[in-house]
Amino acid sequence: QVHLVESGGDSVQAGGSLRLSCEAPGYSSSGNRICMAWFRQVPGNKREWAATITGDGQTDYADYVEGRFTISRDDAKNILYLQMDSLKPTDTAMYYCAQSRLRWCEAHLNFYAYWGQGTQVTVSS
Questions:
Q1: Tens digits of pLDDT across the chain (125 residues)
Q2: C-alpha distances out from residue 124 to 10, 11, 12, 30, 69, Å
């Protein structure tokens, strides 16, 4: 069983920054680096994709990120990060990390086999 544990969520003012962390293996059972992602969800809304990083380190971001977020991974430490800058009140959500079983990434929920419990980000105006 794969356990993902997020941390780093907090309450900040608009324009501020946060760095989220996710303790995650990042490797498949065969030892291959695999796709990792961040999603977010506001109560009453669907969980939406924020960013992905492939096993090869290629990154992709949702349009609403607009260059403000950076996803990265430290495979030596088994940690996935999401650096969030220039935060807006509309970024307020529970943020989840997710891990697939494959090397490449896709943006839909069903692609990911493992999920963390989430970390809350609140941005006030």
A1: 788 999 999 999 999 999 999 998 877 767 778 999 999 999 999 999 999 999 999 999 999 998 999 999 998 899 999 999 999 999 999 999 999 999 999 999 999 999 999 999 999 99
A2: 11, 7, 6, 44, 18
